[in-house]
Amino acid sequence: MMSTHLGESNEMYLITVLKLSRKAENGEVTVSRLAEETGHSMSTVSEKVRKLTEKGYLEHEWREGVSLSRKGHLYAGRLLRKRRLIETFLVRMAGYSIYDVHDEACRLEHVISDRLTDALDRMLDYPEVDPHGHPIPTHEGKCRGVETVALSELDSGVIARVAALCSEDAERLKYMHELGFEPERQVVVREKAPFDGPITVDIEGHNIVISPALASCVQMKTREPVLLGRNGTENR
User: Fold this and answer.
1) By percentage, how much of the chain surpasses pLDDT 70?
2) Does position 160 have pLDDT exceeding 80, yes or no?
3) Which residue among 93, 163, 183, 184 is buried most deeply as judged by most CB within 10 Å?
């Protein structure tokens, strides 16, 4: 359980490092990338990183990248658990659409207790993924996941199922949903035009033409779930 509440600002930094580190080859994030993502100045970000490093939530050496410590990774994982359970509740029980839950969940994740989080988990019958297809971390903050690949990376003729929709932009999510992209839905890659041209896919018998940029936001399943540990690496 979270024994310490770090406050919304600190928590958002940990979530941001978690998100960006999973996209980085070495699991580290530069201070400049953090500044770009948060919209804060380099000096503000550097000071925040310094304080969170002193508290043991981040690891950062002079002129090196920023990464989550084990303590920070579990804290961020428990925050992510709250967000994704809230999103699941809002869609299942409160009539929200999958494209309009993000901002609401981001506000609520900083104020609900661990007790309420566990109650939501029980009430929802312990879901493993949120409405977007993202894995919900365990009670301890460890992240379940599946090995995925972006739809834009699949070759023509490949048949795969949607794992998750990866965008925080409500309009983009709405558009993807309207096209038929939903978790577990089967997609057939019909044709990929050369030179970064459009991609034609089949969803339930309907041919749809999308851009590579949009296809990169759709993650496809490649194998069965694994348990991810620190910095997104597999626990075996």
Assistant:
1) 92
2) yes
3) 163
Kindly list the distances between the CA atom of residue 104 and the CA atoms of 37, 42, 83, 170, 203, in Å, as whole numbers in the listed order: 20, 28, 9, 12, 30
3-state secondary structure of 87: helix
CATH label, 1-145, candidates 3.90.1150.10, 3.30.56.10, 3.40.50.1980, 1.10.10.10 = 1.10.10.10
CATH H superfamily, domain 148-221: Ferrous iron transport protein A (FeoA) (2.30.30.90)
Tokens of 231: 């910095």
Measured between its terminal Cα atoms, the distance across the chain in Å is 23
C-alpha 170/C-alpha 167 separation (Å) is 8
Per-residue model confidence (pLDDT) at position 23: 79
Sign, Cα dihedral of 127, 232, 217, 96: positive
Summarised one tens digit per residue, pLDDT across range 115-156 is 999 999 999 999 999 999 999 999 988 877 678 999 999 999
